[in-house]
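Here is one chain, start to finish.
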Amino acid sequence: MAKSRKSRRGATAASVAETVDGGLAELIPDPDRARAWTLLLDGAPQSHVDLDDPAFLSFEYQRRLGHVIDLVAPPGRPVRAVHLGGGALTLARYVAATRPRSTQQVVERDAPLVELVRRELPLDRNARIRVRSTDAREGLAKVPDGWADLVVADVFSGARTPAHLTSTEFLDEVRRALAPGGWYAANLADGPPLTHLRGQIATAAARFAELALVGDPTVLRGRRFGNAVLVAADQPLPIPELTRRAASDPHPGRVEHGRALRDFTGGATPVTDASAVDSPAPPASVFT
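Its structure:
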């Protein structure tokens, strides 16, 4: 169904609301950008897309993933990317805009959501983006060995990351799909006492030689619930440049790596399929 909603400027702007597998999906026009929209699922902001400027990233965690995309290869060079979790396809659009001729696979299990996004926020016809409507881990299993330069995990169901996407066995599948020199990046969400986040760092450390964590300092200190972006690879990461970019964000972030990041785990042990649980639900105040 379609409906109208008042923008913050007071003008009436058309919004779209439809029921999808994940709940009520709403596309709300951005009052400050002519052809930009925010995707909400059951009231929780999921993605922001500017059809006129797909290189514009509004959400804090998406900008940090954008930094990873910028640094995974020399500027402008096409890459092969796998996105686990699609939302409004914001990051796939970003790759297509900043790295033309890139080949991408998006795995988003919510087929009605994909249909809504494709209809209301159409992709550039020149973008080489294939979308699979299946479970993220099942979709990852179909990626050829050594195909991807970058695997991005940004999967939430009811604002929680499903347990089967948090384990060493899942990361074994990620490593299988990555090309030599490839990177893995994940959007993680947690709050005090950061049990989930510490466990995810320990899990990644069991499978990758090099790690970095980018987040708001108050989140990393366990003072509030929020997002942090994990980056993992088997070769040294460009920590100085990643640090510079994170610090220059509108909401500056901190980068932890090396000994400090190992200490951050606080003795947490790697998560396996047998011990995995969903990430914690955010408090209601996060979305108000």
